TrEMBL record:
This is Proline iminopeptidase. It comes from Penicillium frequentans. Gene3D superfamilies: alpha/beta hydrolase. The keyword Cytoplasm applies. Pfam families: Abhydrolase_1. Belongs to the peptidase S33 family. Residues 64-328 form the AB hydrolase-1 domain. It catalyses: Release of N-terminal proline from a peptide. The active site is at S140 (nucleophile), D298, H326 (proton donor). It is found in: Cytoplasm. Its EC number is 3.4.11.5.
Length: 349
């Protein structure tokens, strides 16, 4: 065997190893995403007469501003949410919505409505001297706020990245908390959810749970919160994530999450049915480049909504994740979110 043949043989042996290593590195990146240093800024912003919002900023101080809008209502942000964004390009802003996360006062229901939260986004933009959001990133309830804000302030939004789209239509709420949607896929979990309630109250579980979550019996509130969240966690992923149920042991998190979700749901999110998807409202944001990422088997936010939104927005792209439910942590979903953020990072300010 001559030198050239020898080199060729060695090269052919190395290629599979190098390819395998690249695949491992890519897989590790998808699982972890980008790594950020600690926040370069954090603060509070007084809004209304009661609330003080907590926010943090990561990445490049003069970078392209992206606002991460968490889900819920009742969710919160953490440094882990920065993983989608290249820190050498993006100025990443995390915001805890009213009554959640590090915002105060905790679990405060007064002055806590959907219009309030939309106004808060604009107040934060002005407070941080950001002329225009380069990107709004919203998942689930965060997608609701991203759409509402964009329809209210279309000239303040450069692009939209939406995951697990929710537009608050009655049909969407019924899908996740009614008898004809997710309940038919997870009948045992649904039976446990409504079985917590007296038989005479099971026809409207949202109202029945809200009554308990806003009551004065602390033990009853904690029990109701656990069962409300147990249902959410049961249907949140394509394959049930048993580790997620550990959150039920955290009574502070559990009550906050359940109370806010029920508070907004029982008030129909302070929106008219179908308001976000009305033609005259979508026309306001038709010019905004939009990427929609949707799990094919999303039991929390029905995939039909992502399809309806995509068909109505001419500059939108819809990416179906064939092996995912609602969670952003599912590998296929996270990979596409990372890819989309990298693509939007190339757009000019």
């Amino acid at each position: 065997m001559g030198p050239a043949q020898s080199l060729c043989t060695v090269s052919s042996l190395l290629k599979p190893r190098l390819f395998s290593r690249k695949r491992r590195l890519k897989s590790q990146f998808i699982m972890s995403g980008y790594t950020h240093s600690d926040a370069f800024d954090s603060g509070t912003l007084a809004v209304g007469t009661i609330h003080r919002l907590h926010y943090e900023q990561y990445g490049k101080p003069d970078g392209k501003p992206v606002l991460f809008l968490h889900g819920g209502p009742g969710g919160q942000t953490s440094k882990a949410n920065t993983a989608y964004f290249n820190p050498s390009v993006y100025r990443v802003i995390l915001l805890d919505q009213r009554g959640t996360g590090k915002s105060t006062p905790q679990t405060e229901l007064r002055e806590n409505t959907t219009p309030d939260l939309v106004t808060d986004i604009e107040s934060l933009r002005a407070h941080l001297n950001i002329p225009k959001w380069h990107l709004l990133f919203g998942g689930s309830w965060g997608s609701t706020l991203a759409l509402l804000y964009s329809e209210a302030y279309p000239d303040r939004v450069g692009s939209l990245l939406l995951r697990g789209v929710f537009t608050t239509r009655d049909a969407e709420v019924s899908w996740s908390r009614g008898v004809l949607g997710a309940a038919n896929i997870f009948p045992e979990a649904w039976e446990a959810f409504v079985g917590f309630l007296p038989a005479e109250e099971r026809g409207d579980p949202v109202a029945a749970y809200y009554k308990r979550l806003t009551g004065t019996d602390e033990r009853a509130k904690a029990a109701a919160a656990r069962e409300w969240n147990r249902w959410d966690l049961s249907i949140g992923t394509l394959r049930v994530d048993e580790d997620a149920f550990l959150n039920l042991k955290d009574e502070v998190w559990s009550l906050k999450h359940a109370l806010m979700e029920a508070h907004y749901a029982v008030h129909h999110f302070w929106l008219e049915d179908g308001q976000i998807l009305r033609r005259e409202n979508l026309e306001k944001i038709a010019h905004i480049p939009t990427t929609i990422i949707q799990g094919r088997y999303d039991m929390v936010c029905p995939p039909q909504t992502a399809w309806d939104l995509h068909r109505a927005l001419p500059k939108s792209k819809l990416i179906w994740i064939a092996d995912a439910g609602h969670s952003p942590k599912e590998p296929g979903t996270k990979a596409e979110l990372l890819k989309a953020c990298d693509e939007f990072s190339l757009d000019p300010l």
